[in-house]
Design brief:
CATH superfamily of the largest domain: EAL domain
Number of domains: 4
CATH topology of the largest domain: TIM Barrel
Pfam families: EAL, GGDEF, PAS_8, PAS_9
Helix content: 40-55%
Strand order of the largest sheet: 18-19-21-22-23-24-25-26
Bound molecules: ligand LFPHGCPZ
Domain PAC: 97-148, 220-273
Protein name: Diguanylate cyclase/phosphodiesterase
CATH architecture of the largest domain: Alpha-Beta Barrel
Distance between the termini: 199 Å
Shape: rod-shaped
GO molecular function: cyclic-guanylate-specific phosphodiesterase activity
Domain EAL: 485-739
Length: 758
C-alpha cells in the first residue's frame, strides 16, 4: 500500500522517481510496523494488506490475503452485508466509518475488532476503500469480564446479607438495600445524607467519628459494635467493619460493612437466659438428684440401721444392752449342744436382785432402770467373754457358763455377790443390792436349755426364800416346792369367789389408859387342801398378779361391815385399820371406793384408818399427796405401817398429813436388849410428837416392851401381848372388856400372848 504526497508532482522526472521510491519505502515501513491491520479493498476483494493484518487474521503472509473476498473475513454473509449496509452510506458521504465488529480469523475463530473505514474516493466507491482493523478481542473479553465482575459485584452488593456503605466525609455516597432495610429507609433515601442521620444523638455521632476514624486515618481497619437509630427511631445494634477505600488517602472515602446484630443479641440474650435457666434447671436437677441420691443413701443406711436395730431389738435388751430372752434361748441351745457333743460341763445361773421392786416402787422407775444398767455392766464385767449374761425381764438375769462345773459356777456366784455388793451412787441415792441366784448343771438338772433355766429359777427362789443374797444349786425337792408356789398362784385366783378369805382383827390399845383405840383387820386365807396360808406369802402373789385390788376391796367392805355390826352392838370409840398395798393405793378409784363403802355401811370417814407402807408415796409423791388429800376430805385417817424400814422424808410426812406412825416390830422385838432399837424407837416417838402424830408400836409381845414403849411416850400399842389377831366373834370379848379402858398388865407373868389382861 502507498500513498503519494502532492509534492511529487512538483519534482523533475528523475528526481521525482527517486522521491517516489523513497516515499514508497517510507510508507512500506510505516505499514509494516503499524500496530493495527490495514487493508485496501476494491470490489470486495483484498488488494493489499500489511503484516499486522495478516497476523490478526492468522495468515502466514500479507500476500496470502491478496485476492481473497473480504466476505470470508466475516462470520457470515449476513454479517458482511450488514456491515456494508451500515458503513457505505457513511463512507459515501466521505466520512470515516467506525465500528466494533466481529470478524473471523483464517482458522474460523470469531474475534472482535475495531474497524475504521474510508473510501479512497468518496465520489467513486469503485476505487476501493481503506480499512484499519484493530484486534480488540482481548480488550473486549477483558471488558466483558470486567462487566461480569461488576454485575456480580452489583448482585452481591444488592443481595448481600450485610449492609454495605460507602461514605465520603461522613456522607453516604452509596449503600446497598440491606443497609437501607436495616435502618428502615427506602431505596436511595440515604444517598447524599450525612451519617449523623442514623446516630441516636449528636454526641454519639461525634464519639463514633473519633472512635472509628482514628484507625481509618492511619489506613487501618475499624471493627466494633455500635447502636444506630432507625428511621422510625428504634435503636439498632450493629457490628461494623470499616476500611478506607484508599489506605493512603482517607478523602477517597470509606467502605462500611454493617451487620444488624440486634436480633442476634436478642436471641443471644434469650439464649443466655435460656441457658441460664437451663443451667439453673440442671443445677436444680443435679441438686435434686444428689439430694435424692443422698436420701437414698440415707434411706439405705436407715434401712440397714433399722434392720440392724430390729435384729438388735429382737435379740438384745433395750435397757441394759444385754442379750434378751430370744438370744439367750439361741445361745443356751447352742451351749447345750456343744456341751453334749464335747462332754464338757455347762452351768446355767438364774439371778434375781433382792428387793429391787422395793427400789422401783419407792424411788421410781428411772432410778430402778439406772440401777439395773449399772448392775448389768457389773455382771458382764465379772464373767468371761464366752459366757452369756442375758436379761430375762425386770431384775431377772440368766447366765450361761460354758465349761463351768459346780465349783466354777459357785465361784461365779460369789463373784456376782461381790460385784453387786459395792454401793451404786444414783444422784443423791446410794443404793446397794444383793443378788439371789439359782444354779442348774447340765446334764444333771436338765437335758435341754428350757429345763436348765427352770431348774435354775426354782433354785433361785429357794435362795431368796432362805434369806436372799445367796445362791443355791437346784435339787429335785425344790422342784416340788416350786410346783407348790405355782399351785398357790392358781389357787389364789379362785380364793375370793370360793369364799376362802376371812378377816381376823387385832386390837390396838391406848398406852396410857389401856382403852381400845382401834382394831386392825388382817386377811386370812384357808385353802381346803393347802390349809392356812400366811398373808406374808400370798399378799405378794396377789400384788404381782393384780388380784390385790379385788381382794383389797373385799377386805375394806368386810372390815367396815364388821365395824358397823360392832357399832350396832354398842361397841364403839375405836377405829378400824385396814392395810392397803401400793397397787391398791395407786388405784385411781380408791378414794371413791372408800367413800362408797363408808356410805354403804353408814359410817363416817373418821372411823377408818388406812395403813400404808412408807414406800407407797415416794415413787410419785405428788400423785400420792393428791390421793391422800382426797381420802382426808372424806375424814379417813392415814397411818404409816412398818415405819422405819422404808424411805420417808419428814417433809413428805407433813405434806401427807399422816396421823399415825406404826413403829415396825423389828425395832420393838429387841427393845430392852438393843440400845440402838431403843434409841430408834425413842427418836421415832419424839419426831411423831413434834409433827403432831400418834405412834403405834407393833409386835408388842412382852410387858417389858410395853413398859418401855409407854415410857417413851408411844401412844398406842399392838401385839400378841395385848391380843393376837382373832376372828370377829373371838375378839369381841376383848373389845367389850377394853371399851372403857383397862389396865395393861405390867409384867409378862400377868399376861400370856393372846390372853390380854383385863
Ligand atoms: N395389803 C394387805 N396386807 C395385809 C392384809 N392383811 C395382812 N396383811 C399384811 O400381811 C403381812 C403379814 O400379816 P399377818 O401374818 O397377818 O401378820 C400380822 C400380825 O399377825 C403380826 N403381828 C401382830 N402382833 C404381833 C406380834 O406381837 N408378834 C409377831 N411376831 N407378829 C405380830 O403382824 C402383822 C401385822 O403387821 P402390820 O400390818 O404391819 O401391822 C403384814 O405385813 C400385813 O400388813 C390385808 O388385808 N391387805
Amino acid at each position: 500500500m502507498s500513498f503519494l504526497p502532492d509534492a511529487l508532482a512538483l519534482e523533475p522526472r528523475q528526481s521525482s522517481t527517486l522521491a517516489l521510491q523513497r516515499i514508497l519505502r517510507e510508507q512500506q515501513t510505516l505499514l509494516d510496523s503499524a500496530g493495527v491491520g490495514i487493508v485496501f479493498i476494491r470490489h470486495r476483494r483484498v488488494v493489499r494488506c500489511n503484516p499486522r493484518y495478516a497476523e490478526i487474521f492468522q495468515l502466514h503472509s500479507p500476500q496470502a490475503a491478496v485476492g481473497h473476498s473480504s466476505e470470508t473475513l466475516h462470520p457470515s454473509r449476513e454479517a458482511f452485508r450488514a456491515l456494508g449496509r451500515a458503513a457505505y452510506p457513511v463512507l459515501a458521504r466521505g466520512e470515516t466509518y467506525r465500528t466494533e465488529w466481529q470478524m473471523r480469523r483464517s482458522n474460523g475463530c470469531l474475534f472482535w475488532t475495531h474497524l475504521t473505514g474510508r473510501l479512497i474516493n468518496p465520489e467513486d466507491s469503485s476505487e476501493g476503500s481503506i480499512w484499519i482493523v484493530d484486534d480488540i478481542d482481548e480488550q473486549k473479553r477483558s471488558q466483558a469480564e470486567l462487566h461480569a465482575a461488576l454485575r456480580e459485584n452489583q448482585v452481591l452488593f444488592d443481595n448481600a446479607m450485610v449492609g454495605i456503605v460507602v461514605l465520603r466525609d461522613r456522607v453516604l455516597v452509596r449503600c446497598n438495600h440491606h443497609f437501607e432495610r436495616i435502618l428502615g429507609y427506602g431505596p436511595g433515601e440515604l444517598v447524599g445524607r450525612s451519617s449523623r442521620q442514623w446516630y441516636l444523638s449528636e454526641s454519639d455521632w461525634q464519639a463514633a467519628g473519633e472512635h472509628c476514624y482514628a484507625p481509618l486515618a492511619l489506613g487501618r481497619e475499624f471493627e466494633g459494635q455500635m447502636t444506630l437509630r432507625a428511621k422510625d427511631g428504634r435503636a439498632v445494634v450493629v457490628e461494623v467493619r470499616s476500611r478506607p477505600l484508599d489506605p493512603a488517602d482517607l478523602s477517597q472515602g470509606t467502605l462500611w460493612i454493617v451487620l444488624d446484630v440486634s436480633e442476634r443479641l436478642r436471641v443471644q440474650a434469650q439464649l443466655a437466659q435460656m441457658h441460664g435457666a437451663l443451667e439453673q434447671q440442671v443445677r436444680d436437677r443435679t441438686r435434686e438428684l444428689s439430694e435424692t441420691v443422698a436420701d437414698l443413701h440415707r434411706e439405705i443406711e436407715q434401712r440397714k440401721y433399722d434392720q440392724e436395730r430390729i435384729h438388735w431389738m429382737a435379740h438384745y435388751d433395750a435397757l441394759t444392752g444385754l442379750p434378751n430372752r430370744v438370744l439367750l434361748a439361741e445361745r443356751g441351745q447352742q451351749a447345750v449342744r456343744t456341751a453334749r457333743e464335747s462332754g464338757s460341763p455347762l452351768a446355767v445361773m438364774f439371778l434375781d436382785l433382792d428387793n429391787f421392786k422395793h427400789v422401783n416402787d419407792s424411788l421410781g422407775h428411772r432410778v430402778g432402770d439406772a440401777l439395773l444398767m449399772e448392775i448389768a455392766q457389773r455382771l458382764r464385767r465379772t464373767v468371761r467373754d464366752r459366757d452369756t449374761v442375758a436379761r430375762l425381764s425386770g431384775d431377772e438375769f440368766v447366765l450361761i457358763l460354758p465349761g463351768a462345773n459346780a465349783q466354777g459356777a459357785a465361784r461365779v456366784a460369789s463373784k456376782m455377790q461381790e460385784a453387786a455388793r459395792a454401793p451404786v451412787q444414783l444422784g443423791h441415792h446410794e443404793l446397794s443390792v444383793s443378788p439371789s441366784m439359782g444354779i442348774a448343771l447340765f446334764p444333771e438338772h436338765g437335758e435341754d436349755f428350757e429345763s436348765l433355766i427352770q431348774a435354775a429359777d426354782t433354785a433361785m427362789y429357794r435362795a431368796k426364800a432362805e434369806g436372799r443374797n445367796n445362791f443355791r444349786f437346784f435339787t429335785p425337792r425344790m422342784q416340788e416346792q416350786s410346783a407348790q408356789a405355782l399351785q398357790l398362784t392358781n389357787a389364789l385366783s379362785r380364793a375370793l369367789e370360793r369364799g376362802q378369805f376371812a378377816l381376823h382383827y387385832q386390837p390396838q390399845v391406848s398406852a396410857a389408859t389401856g382403852a381400845i383405840s382401834g382394831v386392825e383387820a388382817l386377811l386370812r386365807w384357808r385353802h381346803p387342801e393347802l390349809g392356812d396360808i400366811s398373808p406374808a406369802d400370798f399378799i405378794p402373789v396377789a400384788e404381782d398378779s393384780g388380784q390385790i385390788v379385788a381382794i383389797g376391796e373385799w377386805v375394806l367392805d368386810t372390815a367396815l361391815a364388821q365395824l358397823q355390826r360392832w357399832r350396832q352392838r354398842g361397841l364403839s370409840g375405836f377405829t378400824m385399820s385396814v392395810n392397803l398395798s401400793a397397787a391398791q393405793f395407786r388405784h385411781p378409784q380408791l378414794p371413791e371406793l372408800v367413800a362408797q363403802l363408808l356410805e354403804r355401811h353408814g359410817l363416817a370417814g373418821d372411823c377408818l384408818e388406812l395403813e400404808l407402807t412408807e414406800n407407797v408415796a415416794i415413787g410419785d409423791p405428788e400423785a400420792a399427796a393428791r390421793i391422800m388429800d382426797q381420802l382426808h376430805a372424806h375424814g379417813v385417817g392415814l397411818a404409816i405401817d412398818d415405819f422405819g424400814t422404808g424411805y420417808s422424808s419428814l417433809s413428805q410426812l407433813k405434806r401427807f398429813r399422816i396421823c399415825r406412825l406404826k413403829i415396825d416390830r423389828s425395832f420393838v422385838r429387841d427393845l430392852g436388849q438393843d440400845r440402838n432399837d431403843h434409841a430408834l424407837v425413842s427418836a421415832i416417838v419424839r419426831m411423831a410428837q413434834a409433827l403432831g402424830m400418834r405412834t403405834t408400836a407393833e409386835g408388842v409381845e412382852t410387858p417389858q416392851q410395853l413398859e418401855l414403849l409407854r415410857g417413851e411416850g408411844c401412844t398406842e400399842l399392838q401385839g400378841f401381848h395385848i391380843s393376837r389377831p382373832l376372828p370377829a366373834e373371838q375378839v369381841e370379848p376383848f373389845l367389850l372388856r377394853h371399851q372403857r379402858g383397862a389396865r395393861l398388865a405390867p409384867a409378862p407373868s400377868q399376861a400370856r400372848p393372846g390372853k390380854p389382861s383385863p
